[in-house]
Amino acid sequence: MDSIRLEFDPPDYRRGEDFDRLGRAAAELLAHLFPPVQVSLKYTKQESAPRTAKGAAARAASVPAPGHMRTYRVPVPGESGWWRELTVVVSDAGRRFLGLDTGGTAGISSVAVAGKPKTVSPLTGHRVPRELEYAVRACEHVSHAWLAHLGGSVAPEIHAALAAQLPVLVVSYITAGALHGFAADSSRRSQRDTLARAVARVIEYLQALAGGRVEHEALSHGVVIAPPTRTEQPLNLGIYPDDFEELKRTPLLADGVRAALWISPAREPIGWLTTESLRRGKRRLAAASGPFGELGLLAEAARTLGGVGIGLSKNGSIVIFVKEQPLFIRRLGKWSGTLWRVVREVLGARYGEVGTTVFEAAVILSATGYGGVLGLVEALPEGVHDKDRVHLARHKAVRNGAARASERGSAERPHPEWLFHALLPSDQVVNLGAPALAMVASIDGATLVSREGNLLAYGAIIPIRPSGSVGARSAVARELSYEGFVIKVSCDGPISLYEGGKKIFEV
């Protein structure tokens, strides 16, 4: 289905290029962050304010169908008499995969009360990913706040600027909500809002740095936002990045790889973070680079400090970590990653720790810029070469029997590549862990895991049927999905899910 649909009442209205840029930007962002949804914008011409549903019975009558989320009508900035209603519809495939209850009532609503939207809690009997709910809330909140601040008449150039800024603000609010549990109480909401503003400002600075060069070198940068501790308090030397962004040494001394800058949610600098400083602080420290390669310092610092790590890579991508787990990646001007938590939970429910380990390996590949195909299959498909079969290498006498077989000239002489399979510390992916699984999955070819968690093969060439214009990796993922569940990771970041010979959706 088309991801965005516009509907007008009266239907013959011809909109201009500047008509409701903000609403359309919100729809485009939601459709991109949540690929398994369709976003509809319904515009109604009505000079007076639409009537507001009152009471539980009236609200129940206006409840959208299962799999839908809807906002009540709000005025369109700068368009007198026009009102907008936004509806989000989860696709059938997405609803089935995510386990959404199709028999209960649905989603969230925003009801206009005294000219301001009031969010109604998710209705019982229907599970909605909290990130999607939160993103819809954030879009409405930002739009309404700007409208209240600027008034009904908004110049086109201001409207366009606000629309361009919307993705950063929504991503920032989701990030802050993920750290504070999408809190609704006033005290935690205040902490969330403060953190969201800090995240937004850091992202804006990193976007300005992206593509820049100092002394012919592309720039990288890393920042961790976390509260001060009893022993480490903010330095009274300015606000980051406002007082430091013009300094040449700011990105150079906090490159996100060797060192990161620690700031408070109020954006006050606290100190430098390095592997050595984390060790000196007697904090639990993972391996030097961790599973995220050059971004490992940011991931580990975010975990140990209980905060948010934000890093700019030299390739221009921006990665956001919340307590070590990557939450968002921005590549080529687009944000992705919002549904990772939900997909991880679904695979955990289906396949247990094996499913979560496989998906975490896919996320590591995405965060570090590698591609791969990982399949959870019943058995190896026909045509996989013996040299790629991990179980053959580990269940035959490779170490002690190899020399004897070689001397006899036996037909069972092992393949040289079996050496690497035999050197693996385990053929159980849960014991291997997501970082090691991501390492082998980054090799060209498919990585295959049994539902019981055995690593069956990696770097495997899969015979595929003619695929027309579909890329080789997509064709392999589609073919393997006849045997089970498959995750395809593109080098530019997106993670695609396949099952039954079809692509379910992309995250």
Q: What is the number of helices?
A: 17
Read across the widest sheet, the strand sequence of neighbours is: 12-11-10-13-14-15-16
Strand content: 15-25%
Roughly how many Å apart are the termini?
17 Å
**Unreliable segments (pLDDT under 50, ≥5 consecutive)?**
53-62, 102-126, 284-289
Helix content: 25-40%
CATH topology of the largest domain: YojJ-like (1
* Major beta sheet summary: 7 strands, mixed
On the 0 to 100 scale, the average pLDDT is 80
Number of strands: 22
Question: What's the CATH architecture of the largest domain?
Answer: 3-Layer(aba) Sandwich
Radius of gyration: 25 Å
Large-scale geometry: globular
Structural class determined from secondary elements: alpha+beta
- According to CATH, the homologous superfamily of the largest domain is DNA integrity scanning protein, DisA, N-terminal domain
Structural commentary:
- The chain has 507 residues and is of the alpha+beta class.
- It has three domains: 151 residues, no CATH class; 148 residues, YojJ-like (1 (3-Layer(aba) Sandwich), CATH 3.40.1700; 167 residues, YojJ-like (1.
- Helices cover 37% and strands 22% of the residues.
- The protein has 17 helices and 22 strands.
- The strands form five sheets. It has a seven-stranded mixed beta sheet with strand order 12-11-10-13-14-15-16, sandwiched between helices. A six-stranded mixed beta sheet has the order 19-18-17-20-21-22, sandwiched between helices. Strands 1, 2, 3, 4 and 5 form a five-stranded mixed beta sheet that branches.
- A hairpin with a 2-residue loop joins β6 and β7.
- α10 packs antiparallel against α11.
- The longest helix is centred in the N-terminal third of the chain and has 24 residues.
- About 8% of the residues have low confidence.
